[in-house]
Design goal:
Layout: E1 12-17, E2 23-28, E3 31-35, E4 42-48, E5 51-59, E6 61-65, H1 73-76, E7 90-94
């Protein structure tokens, strides 16, 4: 007989400040997903407490997953699968865009 182990997973708290300065809040056990709301890519900053994790992420969206949510949608977009007792979060960009400046020499 295999005995199961108890695991505590803290919820994710999301606070989003939109361009028009409105605030949206949410709680999640599995994951939080944020997607662009226009035809242009989103420019996101991800902060955990007072620590900036990602200063500027340009993409179509992002998933932030707890270990419980890492095997679902997060995994399907190429994110890592986390051990339930890892106390980590997965931050997985969706269609990320890296700003690259290209200088063409004069012909």
């Amino acid at each position: 007989v295999i005995k199961s182990k108890s695991v505590s997973i803290l919820p994710l708290q999301m606070i989003v400040k939109r361009k028009n300065n409105t605030i949206k809040r949410g709680l999640a056990i599995n994951e939080i997903s944020m997607f662009r709301q226009s035809k242009q890519t989103a420019s996101l900053q991800i902060i955990n407490g007072s620590r900036i994790l990602i200063k500027k992420l340009i993409c179509d969206g992002v998933l932030i997953s707890t270990p419980a949510g890492s095997t679902a949608y997060n995994s399907s977009v190429g994110g890592p699968i986390l051990s339930l007792n890892s106390k980590k979060i997965a931050i997985t960009p969706i269609s990320p865009f890296r700003d690259i400046s290209i200088n063409f020499p004069n012909a």
